[in-house]
Amino acid sequence: MGQVAVLFRLMPQGVETDMKALGEAARASLPAGVTLRGMQVKDIAYGLKSLLLSVVMADVSGVLDATEHALAKVPHVESVEVMEEGLI
Once rounded to an integer, what is the mean pLDDT over residues 54-64? Predict the structure, then answer.
């Protein structure tokens, strides 16, 4: 069984969202066995920013969906999107 690297993009509810607090809440919401490898705030347009999270998890059924759902429940997150995923 291998490992999977996944890049998530979290979109905040608005331009006033504190991205540092959003990042800390996202980090705390990751399920057991999912390791955060990197976090970056990226400008989108007109003051709107997104949070990119790079994580590594086991290549087992259900872990990706569980992680996506956990991130979607973080306060002030409008949407979660899987940008990239691949075996490592």
Answer: 95
Chain centroid to CA 24 = 11
The alpha-helical segments, DSSP class H, found in 1-88 are: 19-29, 63-72
Residues 6+ apart with CB under 8 A from 66: 31
pLDDT value at residue 1: 73
Q: Is 79 helix (H, G, I), strand (E, B) or coil?
A: strand
The pair of three-digit structure tokens given for residue 83, joined into one six-digit string:
């940008």
User: For residues 26 and 51, is the Cβ–Cβ distance under 8 A?
Assistant: yes
Is the separation of the CB atoms in 72 and 80 below 8 Å?
yes
Closest Cα to residue 23, out of 4, 54, 51? 51
Domain 3-87 has CATH 3.30.70.60: yes
Q: What's the pTM value of the predicted model, to 2 decimals?
A: 0.94
Query: For 15-49, how does the pLDDT look when each residue is reduced to its tens digit (9 = 90+)?
Result: 999 999 999 999 999 999 999 999 999 999 899 99
